[in-house]
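2024-03-11 09:14:02 INFO queue: dequeued item Flagellar hook protein FlgE, len=260
2024-03-11 09:14:02 INFO validating residues
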Amino acid sequence: MLRSMYSGISGMKNFQVKLDVIGNNISNVNTVGFKKSTITFQDLLSQNMSNSGANPMQVGLGSTSASLNVNHNAGSAMSTGVGTDLTIMGDGFFVVQDPEAPGAEGQYLTRAGNFTVTADGNLVTAQGYNVLGDDGQPINISGYDSYTINRLGEVIGKQADGTEEVAANIGIATPENPAGLRKFGGSLYEMTNIASPGGLVIENAAQAGTEIGSGMLEMSNVDLTEEFTEMIIAQRGFQANSRTITTSDELLQEVVNLKR
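2024-03-11 09:14:37 INFO prediction written
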């Protein structure tokens, strides 16, 4: 009976974590570039009751969380009409850098392309991080009368006399294992050795085998219908495990009452 109690407790803890994951997904249903998370469970060690039979007699000791993964499937694109709103039409991430970080430090990956241009002509994120080009340098478009960004990720500056030139190329990083990235907050990800053993490699859109959409944003890939369904499953699982604990408690109470 005590085993059943502890199994019920482990199950309640796991479903509580599942509800935490679902709650975070739902709260970010409208977050630009957000990627939902999923959780999987696995059983704990089993206690051997007897080895005398043909097959082992074992009783499980509950469950635990096996993994918590980020789903990097692309979200739907939303048209904004703003030239500096960009979306990656394929695999890969934009590369941004904290302007206060020296050298190659403070570099992050993101799918949120809601960029703006500062008074100094720097292309930056909503947090003020510099958007990097394929050369690893911040993109600056000062000195031009106007600019456009094409599907190849080329930032084309136009002079007052009508002449055009490529001012920069939007940098794209494509880790071998995106699920190995570490969430940093603000729709940013930190590079890890698990995500890319060879380190951060910045390419242009053509080299990365993708295209850039200008005037649109990639929205969250959270599906509310799926999340609500998973919430019902988690709620019922939590209730079932709590019922295991109350039933075990009732049995223990009956054992205590035998002495009376």
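2024-03-11 09:14:37 INFO annotate: DSSP finds three helices and 20 strands in the chain.
2024-03-11 09:14:38 INFO item closed
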